Amino acid sequence: MNPNPVIRLHANDNVLIARSDLTLGQPLPELGVRARAQVPAGHKIAARAIAQGEAVRKYDTVIGVADRDIAAGEHVHSHNLRLVDFYRDPAFCRDVRPVQYVPEAERATFMGYVRPDGRVGTRNFIGILSSVNCSATVIKHIAAHFTPERLAAYPNVDGVAAFAQSSGCGMSSPSEHFDVLRRTLAGYARHPNLAGVLIVGLGCERNQVASLVDSQGLVPGENLHTLVMQDTGGTRETIAAGIRAIEAMLPAANAATRQPVPASHLKIGLECGGSDGFSGITANPALGAAMDILVRHGGTAILSETPEIHGVEYMLTRRAVTPEVGQKLLDRLAWWERYTAGHNAQFNGVVGHGNQQGGLANIFEKSLGSAMKGGTTPLQAVYEYAEPIDQAGFVFMDSPGYDPVAATGQIASGANLICFTTGRGSMFGSKPAPTIKLASNSPMFHRLEEDMDINCGLVLDGELSVAQMGERIFAHILRAASGESTKSELLGLGDHEFVPWHLGIVS
């Protein structure tokens, strides 16, 4: 039996979703009419006549108003759907439901690296950080020295990774940008997936290595070394000194071994990129279901990408554990409104080309799917970008929607693994925390199977429920956290995806 060509998400919706490409004149039994246009898979079609100015509802949520009269069976997209802002009651704490925690003795486990201070890593890298772009080439040369052949003697070390960045000087200091950069670098320096760290500076930059280390409470020692090029003797001498510093850290890093630890030590950064009309039906709610499981096991789920909750933020404020937590989220959105005023930014309504092609007409519709990644448990806390996350459960970290910047902030905040949903096919990987990529639909998964880890299109295909897919995702997370390579790791991604959030002027 052929499945219904359209999907009804909620009884109150006046649009349906095309399961696959619809042809002009194709019968739509659900509506008793024929399609009035060619409608790509994942796009919306009017379930009934919609009058000009009438609210368009998807998942019983307003995603805009009809820009003109729309007939039943007509394609509904940015050509006839207008984004209109409207009051959204935050109703702080109204939808908070107690978490049914799994008893500690019954909680899931994974094989992790336990650091001396009790933090737990999912990978075992040595990292090299540049305080400024002027030392970026040097740290890349140091990392390049440690080829697989040279690391063969250290089988427990996942690699030597260089985290180069494009700022550190020519910037205001003190400033918000300066604070964010230092917080990000420090977050990586103390990350549990790094067994040792080398920080390299030039010497005359604003972001001085010594004050970076001192201001962020970092403690140089056997596992944290620093070099300044102008003091060390220049490019060649610094590369040689950096190689010696890494070689000195390798034996201790290699001595680390995996051991069973509770899933409560997992902190998962939640990302979506290249979203499509199916992301909010399959991958995002399934990832949300997996995060509900993780939270019940004592773990932490980190939702970010603040512009991509714009329009549906009330779904989160109503789950805030206190009015103060909910208000902090609204304060961040208000900051974004000021920050993006007068610019053609996503926050102001326009979504990317891939999102448009995939069926998402505006930011409210995209946000509706994006917010689902966080599941249904209470919102415990709201954090600034790269701020250390010290609260377990479902939390929010402020960030742009640009995936490398958001993931960098999450990792700096302590995420030891990233889950990344995509409908169009985002090619992304990260270090030192690995990325699991979840496809929203089966055709894309099979076309890009070398890059995709999990096919959430099985929900759309009727093979699994959202809850069953959530269980499958959670099991995959435990395996990846225990050392199973993700697709992006097998492809060698992650060396160029360290992108701290750049705020402010360059002078």
UniProtKB/TrEMBL annotation:
The keyword Transcription does not apply. Keywords: Lyase. CDD domains: SAF_AH_GD (cd11613). Belongs to the UxaA family. SMART domains: SAF (SM00858). InterPro entries: GD_AH_C, GD_AH_second, SAF, SAF_UxaA/GarD, UxaA_altronate/galactarate_dh. Residues 13-82 form the SAF domain. This is Altronate dehydratase. It comes from Cupriavidus campinensis.
